[in-house]
Amino acid sequence: MNDWSLGHLADPACCLEPIDVAGHKPANLLGLLTTMLRIRTAERCLAQGRQDGLIGGPVHLGVGQEAVAAGVSTQLRKTDRVFGAHRSHAHVISVGTPLVRLFAEVLGKQGGVSRGMGGSMHLWDQPNGFYGSVPIVAGTVPLAVGAALAAKMQGNGDVGVSYLGDGAVEEGVVHESLNLARMLDAPVIFVVENNMFASHMHISLRQPKAATARFAAANDMPYDIVDGNDVLAVQAASARLIDRARAGEGPGFLEAVTYRWYGHVDWREDVDVGVNRSAADLAGWRKRDPIARLVAGLDAQGWLRADQLAEIEAAVAQEIAQAWSDACGDSDPPPGALTSHVFVGRRGPRP
Amino acid sequence: MSSVRYNYGTALLAGFEYLLENYPEVFVLGQGLWSPWYVGNSMTDLDKKFGAHRIIDTPVSESATTGAAIGAALAGMRPIVVHPRMDFMLYAMDAVVNQAAKWSHMFGGQAGPAVTIRSIINRGGEQGAQHSQSLHAWLAHVPGLRVVMPATVADARDLLVASVLCPDPVVFIDDRWLYDLEDELPPIAERPLESEGPKCLLAGDELTIVACGYATQLALKAADLLSAQGISAEVIDLRILNPFDAQVLITSVMKTGRLLAVDGGWGPCGMAGEVIASVMERVAPAAMKKSPLRLTLPFAPAPTARSLEKIYYPSAATVEAAARELVAKA
Question: Under CATH, what is the fold of the domain A7-75+161-330?
Fold first, then answer.
């Protein structure tokens, strides 16, 4: 990939084989499978809630991209500093945010992760290591660098994680952030979920080369480009980059090539509104399903019987139905919430 | 404890030294911090005293640097990011307006960056349109940002300390034209920024002059000139532009019945207009002896030619003239 094309990784006719699970612990594999199933089932629940009109605001769904957050998050601890963007449901679910609190937030309820003040696009769960997501493209990228710099100053071995998309790479602040992270040796991992689309537009119409990791190379930063629908490839690459960041060896860059099954926003597939987004490509990518490929890999080793899979799926479905029902029953934020947290510090009586 | 003589620049330096000595979570980043000629005498040798790991001279990246300061604040540090000239800070507006200011509200008060964004007004000297701006009114328009503008030697030091110790994002705006101002200050006593607000610097009873930053010093000089002519002006320094508490102004105008708002920014949608509106909403028309007046920059970018620059900025003489117009018999 010296020409910075993504080669076979961008081709939906490739990478269809079962995930090679040989040598991996079944517990790790079942954990990854469960995380991906929880993400997908939760996102489908949100898609339905949006379609039914129960969710009033936009939801940016990442069905098809579950392996990225699932794989990266296995390498994180609660004191790490993870930052996301508009498509961050998977990021919070995979660091352990209770589904009911995510759902309540998307529904604008006060039991939500952001106390009903954020909705789908502004998520916060710092106790689980998720420092925040916002929908300004690339808005959190320099924040992740700063949180990582803080970890370096605090000497605790924690890392920052900045999830961004291939579209964010077109923002100037990303390039400033890569350079700054490298010059300060900040322990931050930039995780580019390259799904080849920014909103409606294919990367070939936005950038001269498809591999965003060329900017890591330009900033003298170690990088890896992986099949983002291979959860074990994501896990291995993120382990390598995160371990060296924890050891004080500076930032890293992980590019995970993937595809989203829904359109940019909400529940539709949007093959009609995408530029270079075809029904044929979508059908191909659905076959490159990160979950089905892991199941096939487990099956090939005889590590997951059909009844075990059905049991896991049923448990996830039950958990999500319960969480959705509980979230729907939560209460709205009080009217005072409109102005009560503009400042953290009290306005205070003047002397 | 004995008092020490400072100028505005060394008072800022004393504030930095106090913070860095007493709070290990404080660090500073920005352009020019390892250079003796970048930020006047306000940060001289901080890098030598506290180390280059705490006083970080950065790449030419206002946006990422400001964002990184916000991220570090979210992670428990108390960073101060320095923009040696406010005009260049416009590259960082997403970080300031979309991120720092919003984080607390968006997340229900669970998170907020205790970051101080120091922005320096650095104009004059024929530097022109992109080296001269005072955009404090823009920033004061945004909920969630505290905007602080010290006009005195004491405030340069003490409001810097209060800003950095405040749990909210603060834009701290100092002005190079004030750096030679001198005063004697007692030792630092920490005070919460939330309890600070506009202050009456000079009592008077015929008119109220309200200003902020460098314009406050013009107002004080103008009040001297007026006093020599037997006109008694009250001068109020805004100090904290956001959140804006107009009570001191209202009380004063109820007494004087005349209001002159002076500002080093532009008129439309500016600080002077906000001052007048906030007062007039709460003072009965019958209490006013004259319609309020504002004195601001001509509504044009800063010129470079010396001759034009001379007439572009308000001066003690133009403030005095506006005040005389206000107290003149109709």
Answer: Rossmann fold (3.40.50)
